[in-house]
Amino acid sequence: HIEHLQKIAHFHFEKKINKNRCMTFLSWVVVSVTFNGWIYYQSSFYYMSNETRSWTESRRYCKESGADLIIINNREENKMFGGTSAYIGLTDSDVEARWKWVDGTNMTSGLWGPGEPNGYIKENCGVVVDNDPRWPTLFGWHDVLCNRDLQWICEKRISQLILP
């Protein structure tokens, strides 16, 4: 569904000092499909990794990039990165069977695959699976071992870019 992501905003911060006050302006210009591997779509920037890491290392990568693992809000966002399996920002590692997003909110409705989540206390990290040629019959969200090396998806919301 990359064809829906043909617009990306290239942004830069411009600081101006006016009477000893510093104001920050966020400028948007539509430039191309991607910007340094990040894709812009509906008020967020997304990054789909090409490498694999554990859930914790994947999240660390996102955080170091000023983002976090993706929080999936709807089916459209769930389908954006088809053709693979990737970590999402969902875990039940604090309390078993209480799935939470990386921002601390409870998962209220999920897009779990059939029979998922099924890992009980061993599989505590969420993965989105969509048209992955390695597992052609799997789809939806799955719980997996957090130390498994998989790709991941980072998300940075526009609201995180605007400075006070």
From TrEMBL:
<feature type="domain" description="C-type lectin">
    <location>
        <begin position="41"/>
        <end position="155"/>
    </location>
</feature>
<dbReference type="InterPro" id="IPR033989">
    <property type="entry name" value="CD209-like_CTLD"/>
</dbReference>
<keyword id="KW-0430">Lectin</keyword>
<feature type="transmembrane region" description="Helical">
    <location>
        <begin position="21"/>
        <end position="41"/>
    </location>
</feature>
<dbReference type="GO" id="GO:0030246">
    <property type="term" value="F:carbohydrate binding"/>
</dbReference>
<protein>
    <recommendedName>
        <fullName>C-type lectin domain-containing protein</fullName>
    </recommendedName>
</protein>
<dbReference type="InterPro" id="IPR016187">
    <property type="entry name" value="CTDL_fold"/>
</dbReference>
<dbReference type="InterPro" id="IPR001304">
    <property type="entry name" value="C-type_lectin-like"/>
</dbReference>
<dbReference type="Pfam" id="PF00059">
    <property type="entry name" value="Lectin_C"/>
</dbReference>
<dbReference type="InterPro" id="IPR050111">
    <property type="entry name" value="C-type_lectin/snaclec_domain"/>
</dbReference>
<keyword id="KW-1133">Transmembrane helix</keyword>
<keyword id="KW-0812">Transmembrane</keyword>
<dbReference type="InterPro" id="IPR016186">
    <property type="entry name" value="C-type_lectin-like/link_sf"/>
</dbReference>
<keyword id="KW-0472">Membrane</keyword>
